Amino acid sequence: MSRSGEASHPPPAIELAGIDKSFGAVHANRNIDLKIGKGTIHGIVGENGAGKSTLMSILYGFYQADRGEIRIDGARVDIQSPDDAIAAGIGMVFQHFMLVEPFTVLENVMLGAEGGSLLRKGVAQARAELQRLERSYALEVDPDAVVGDLPVGLQQRIEILKALYRGAETLILDEPTGVLTPAEADHLFRILRQLRDQGKTVILITHKLREIMAVTDEVSVMRRGEIVDTLKTAETTPERLAELMVGRRVLLRVDKAAASPGAAMLDVRHLTLRDGRGVTRLDDISFEIRAGEIVGIAGVVGNGQSELLEVISGIRRATSGTVRVDGMPVDVTGTTDASYQRSIGVAHVPEDRHRMGLVVAFEENENAILGYHDDDAYLNGPFLDTDAVRDHARKRMEQYDIRPPDCRLKTENFSGGNQQKIVLAREMEQHPKVLLVGQPTRGVDIGAIEFIHHQLIAMRDAGASILLVSVELDEIRSLSDRILVMCGGRIVGERGPEASERELGLLMAGVGGPDPGATAGGPPR
Amino acid sequence: MTGAQVAPPANARRRRASLPGWIEYAVLPLANLLAAFLVSGLVVLFVGENPFEAVKILLWGSLGFGEGIGFTLFYATNFMMTGLAVAVAFHAGLFNIGGEGQAYVGGLGVGLAALALDRYVPWWVTFPVAVAAAAVFGAAWALIPAWLQARRGSHIVITTIMFNFIASALMVWLLVDHLTPAGSMQPETRTFEAGAHLPELGGLFALLGLEIGGAPVNITLFVALAACVLVYVLIWRTRLGYEIRAVGFNPTAAVYAGISPVRITIVAMLISGALAGIMALNPIMGEQYRLQIDFVAGAGFVGIAVALMGRAHPVGIALASILFGMLYQGGAELAFEIPAISRDMIVVIQGLVILFAGALENMFRPGFIRGYGLFTEGRAPPAARAEGS
């Protein structure tokens, strides 16, 4: 019932023929030919900037191709807008969800397809249809739940429901697992397989090769705007795919020497944080990081990791507890703020570069000094020394291979990986004593991940203390010298890097600790 | 906000950036203006007059002779100051629609300075004192809404509107009960002596061969132009301006960077209020030589349209304020020359310009993006400096 044989399969569900698209001097897609069989899961991998998103935006009608045509079930279609794409049976689930949080699931699904000016009839119809879809695909969503209260994994399922409700035969998912826990991702894959088995076509854009291997039937690799190869997933390996993506051999494991930790650089004692509503976000956290050591924090999103980073970096005020940086006490319950923390050598690569790490409407050079803009090197009295700022930005772009190398370009026009490099370059450049790193490789391509991991190890070897928060257990395990597991705002265990994924997973789920179900949905990221 | 931000995808946002500056800042505003005039023309046609004749009178009345130009620039001075005031707050992500009240209270500062000094010192002593007083009074009037926004989260739009009403009531009370000279029934101060008369620009106009007549354009125009330069430097060349823009674009990232949005909100509103306050100099010490009731006459609100149309950039604001000055002066001529076009119709036309230039500024953008895309097909525009991947 799953993959149908090629002979019995007349025209492909989606066929792109000779698609070509340029933005000014940037040739984003070059003569793309791609056939996606009906009832298959087709992966598209490639580094950021390889043209995956552009290609899918063309298919979904955000852009029009300069040349080439799109055929659906063998018939040529003209897709000028997302409306046309929806009418042609194409649905898209974005990385950033498009949901109205105070609305219920049902209201969100109906949005834009209410069916008349009086709601009642439409609601009844939508409810019936929603129940049918949920049954068919085991989506397990309560139609009357308020979306804002649901965990991220469920919100994503609502996006899928929305597309199906509009009659999507082909579903495009853009980096769908970036925000999910491993368990949620597994559930998503089960849903995708079920969709495929019922004859839907799924296009999965991702940079995680493990997911490609786990769930896709076929995979196309993009590099520099071209499709370099399309392979049967069963007949390839992650190493082969990584090589195709980057155009050279890539080391998927991180090579590092054993740590040689020195004196305690960051010392956290009995740190507690209660938020405005009196909910305990951090509960008596104590740990230390020594110079030349990477300590990883594993945990399901929303168990206090973000708050921990925010307190130590001076963004949020702790309720009680002490923090010492290089032996010096810091007033984390009172006077300290982000710029003071920077001045004593605590640098911070935040978890969400768009929300916190960058002002995306700024030019690159302006972001390259964000947080360090009060440094005398960039100032001339009250004035910004624009020449110095830009010179510095240019040097750093070269050093960290940030592309395109134009420091006057608006930051929102850089790819995710390059944006992350802008943040990393800025924070690492200060040679901090303590580097707080949240999700350093979220939404970043393989080539850049390799680079970022090497930089972090190099910083460790140069004597910095690094606190690493990541949802990627692989990343935690391969970079950390010690792993702390957080659950419900508490540190529930410490393990060495050799700990198995299963062992960490059990700790993360709070076995013997607080009920994980209670924490999974609640706290904001 | 469980990770689900309702934001357009990066690709959709990227589309906005694809127009070169000269279209973005020149062609697009002109197209908006043209649309406004087309609709205005229909209105004129509707009352049975010739729209081309009306445009001719409007242009001639505002730019056709020395006195007209003088009045146009006089009004433009008001709008430039209030437009800059709105723009500075706008860069900090604040919508200050209290320019009207801040200018009104700024006028109190000007009036008090003038009443205190005009009999004893020449104008050039009174002038800087009056500028400072206007700025301090205007800023003070912006302080409470700013503080409420920064510390208590009371929405600045609501509080500044309320403060416009409070300012109005306060000024009526002061003018009726306290500042009116004994025996006078007029709610206004006594007329200032020469020590509080700002020099008019008749001499300068004469150099250009223009006869200024009774036009009150005065050296406040230079104050406004200097303010344009200073605001540009402040926003794009100073550390404070950097912090203001960071807070305006992304308050979360600003906190991350150690910038206090509370401080920036208050500072930006104080600067905004000060700029609005200085506007009072123009009518009080430049035209009427006394503090009167309701002298602001809507300039605070026109400033919003000017800032929107000028894209919150001082150059755009200077040009937009001259345009609105033309509409005011040319409109007055029009109402005078064609009785069928009443003063209220002029307000309608001004409203249309505000509508098209401000509220509907994105109406023509998609068309221009498409058109420009077709035009540059196969050619690399100079703006695209991106290379490779």
Automatic annotation (TrEMBL), chain A:
Q: Topology with regard to the membrane?
A: Peripheral membrane protein
Q: Does the keyword Aminoacyl-tRNA synthetase apply?
A: no
Q: Does the keyword GTP-binding apply?
A: no
SUPFAM superfamilies referenced in this protein's UniProt entry, alphabetically: P-loop containing nucleoside triphosphate hydrolases
Keyword annotations from UniProtKB, A to Z: ATP-binding, Cell membrane, Membrane, Nucleotide-binding, Repeat, Sugar transport, Translocase, Transport
Cited Pfam families = ABC_tran (PF00005)
Q: Which residues form the ABC transporter domain?
A: 14-249, 266-513
- What is a GO molecular function of this protein? ATP hydrolysis activity
Looking up Gene3D superfamilies in the UniProt record yields: P-loop containing nucleotide triphosphate hydrolases
The listed locations are:
Cell membrane
Q: Which residues cross the membrane?
A: none
Question: Would you name any one GO CC term?
Answer: plasma membrane
Q: Which family does it belong to?
A: Belongs to the ABC transporter superfamily.
**Matches recorded under PANTHER family:** CARBOHYDRATE TRANSPORT ATP-BINDING PROTEIN MG119-RELATED, GUANOSINE IMPORT ATP-BINDING PROTEIN NUPO
Q: What protein name is recorded for this chain?
A: ABC transporter ATP-binding protein
From TrEMBL, chain B:
The UniProt entry lists membrane topology as: Multi-pass membrane protein
Per the record, the major location class is membrane
Keywords of this protein's UniProt record, alphabetized?
A: Cell membrane, Membrane, Transmembrane, Transmembrane helix
Pfam families noted in UniProt: BPD_transp_2 (PF02653)
Protein origin, superkingdom? Bacteria
Bilayer-crossing residues are: 22-48, 68-89, 101-117, 123-144, 156-176, 215-235, 264-285, 291-308, 315-332, 338-360
Q: Where does this one sit in the cell?
A: Cell membrane
What Gene Ontology molecular function terms does this protein carry? transmembrane transporter activity
Q: What is one GO cellular-component annotation here? A: plasma membrane
The record, for PANTHER family, names: ABC TRANSPORTER, PERMEASE PROTEIN, GUANOSINE ABC TRANSPORTER PERMEASE PROTEIN NUPP
Task: Report the protein name in the record.
Answer: ABC transporter permease
**Native organism:** Microbaculum marinum
Organism lineage reads as:
Bacteria, Pseudomonadati, Pseudomonadota, Alphaproteobacteria, Hyphomicrobiales
